[in-house]
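User: Teach me something about this protein's shape.
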Amino acid sequence: MLLAINVFSECYSIIKGMIYFIDPFSFDFTFHKMDLFIFNGYPAWQFFDFIYEYPKIISIINLMYNFWFFLVWGSLLYFIFSLNNNYRMKYVISWVLCWFVIGNILAILLSSSGPVFVHRLNSGNTLYLPLIDTLNRVNNILLDIDWPIKVWALNTQDMLWNAFVSNSDILGKGISAMPSMHVSMSVLMALSFWHVKRSLGLLLWVYTFIIYFGSIILGWHYAVDGIVSVPVTYLIWKITSLLCDKSMILSKKND
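Assistant: First, the predicted structure itself:
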């Protein structure tokens, strides 16, 4: 199963890297307009601009955003080695489907780069330059006070952009905003662990909210990116759960 997951992850990464060449990010302005509609004429990040007055909070949110990577793989390993076969199958199948359906298929159909990349793709599009300037200002404050956690998102965004323009083969290569896989995986973890231990599931729901908020204020996503991810992830989880439960019932009857 681990070998299959590794092969699948490599395939996912290859497809993600091809999104721009299939559909060169034609929906960014549409999602920007949708955010304006939701937040009464403001871009989502600007609606929450008060948070940038607290650089240490921004840095903690960035830390939690980066920790997502370890939680995603840690959760996958937990369920792969789970003694409960039904839990294992529900999570692993949902995990694969989320990455493929949301991270590949919908990402191609709703191709967008995300707020922090629009000006790099089109120098005339300066809609989100104020956000980039704000993040750099926050990062400079953290550097001045020698705070150990910085706005690491800035370096990661530079790394992804450089990999994109040079077509380099790196982990998580490619640029894609809609739908948000950070939110999708966080929702899947919360749904799954809710059935393992309610308190842990509740904690992961709180974490999901932080990830969603972080995806906006760190410039990775439009607000609608996460809004789309939630119901699609839930639908994948629900259908997978129903099919796995039915399969278990039929298996027991056959036994």
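Now, about its shape. The radius of gyration is 19 Å. The chain has a mean pLDDT of 92. If you'd like, I can walk through any region in more detail.
User: That's plenty for now, thanks!
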